[in-house]
UniProtKB/TrEMBL annotation:
Stretches assigned to the Quercetin 2,3-dioxygenase C-terminal cupin domain: 147-233
Gene3D superfamilies (alphabetical): Jelly Rolls
Cofactor note: Binds 1 Fe cation per subunit.
Native source organism of the sequence: Chryseosolibacter histidini
Protein name as annotated: Pirin family protein
Record-stated family: Belongs to the pirin family.
Keywords: Iron, Metal-binding
Length: 236
């Protein structure tokens, strides 16, 4: 087994006034050659956006972009004609493919929105851009792993153009479980949204990240009530 630990306080940080953000991997003005990506996982940003503010219309191509709101409401508009609001318990994915423009704004004028902005390199390049959004029941991840992203269109979860599987778990203190890798050669990047957990013997706290590869299973133990996001991605 190989692993990499990214403690919360080692992330890149930027405060633009309207946007307060932490970057797990190199992004914008934050650059660390040792933290460019974890396999196909290229970006993991923990964004807090002021009321009524947001990211104006801008382009993307050949990237799988996932948004997971943790608090508040985020309004999305894109050049494919999609207009949507994503909220806590929603997961949104946009395959940028040959190219798409979009904007993201805090829907509410008087409260912040906090969301995880995640980018993955695609499995196939230059596909037709596409959009998907689904709502997941929070009770279905209490002391279990709830699949929210999958490369299999018939599976539970939003479909992704990559051999990647994402799961959310909301664990009560002292709960233990295992996660089995879906595809040989993949690794798992765990991000602790809240609480304290131990994964494969490594103690982790709120907003810590822990990547594991060259193994076929993870052991997870909740040291307190905890919420965890697991991102299984190709390492090549």
């Amino acid at each position: 087994m190989n692993s990499v630990l990214h403690k919360a306080n080692t992330r890149g940080h930027a405060n633009h006034g309207w946007l307060d953000t932490n970057h797990t991997f190199s992004f914008a003005h934050y650059y660390d050659p040792e933290r460019m990506n974890f396999g196909a996982l290229r970006v993991l940003n923990d964004d807090f956006v002021d009321g009524g503010q947001g990211f104006g219309r801008h382009p993307h191509d050949n990237m799988e972009i996932i948004s997971i709101p943790l608090a508040g409401d985020l309004e999305h508009k894109d050049s494919m004609g999609n207009v949507a609001v994503i909220r806590q318990n929603d997961v949104q994915i946009m395959s940028a493919g040959t190219g798409v423009y979009h904007s993201e704004y805090n829907k509410n004028p008087d409260s912040k929105v906090n969301f995880l902005q995640i980018w993955l390199f695609p499995k196939e390049r230059n596909i037709t851009p596409r959009y998907d959004q689904r709502t997941f029941k929070p009770e279905d991840r209490v002391n279990k792993l709830q699949q929210i992203v999958s490369p299999v269109k018939e599976d539970n979860g939003v479909w992704i153009n990559q051999d990647a599987w994402f799961h959310l778990g909301n664990f009560k203190k002292d709960f233990k479980t295992d996660y089995t890798i879906n595809k040989k050669g993949n690794g798992v990047y765990a991000f602790v949204i809240n609480g304290d957990v131990t994964i494969n013997g490594q103690k982790l706290n709120k907003r810590d990240g822990f990547g594991v590869w060259d193994t076929d299973k993870l052991s997870i133990a909740a040291d307190s009530d905890a919420e965890v996001l697991l991102m299984e991605v190709p390492m090549n």
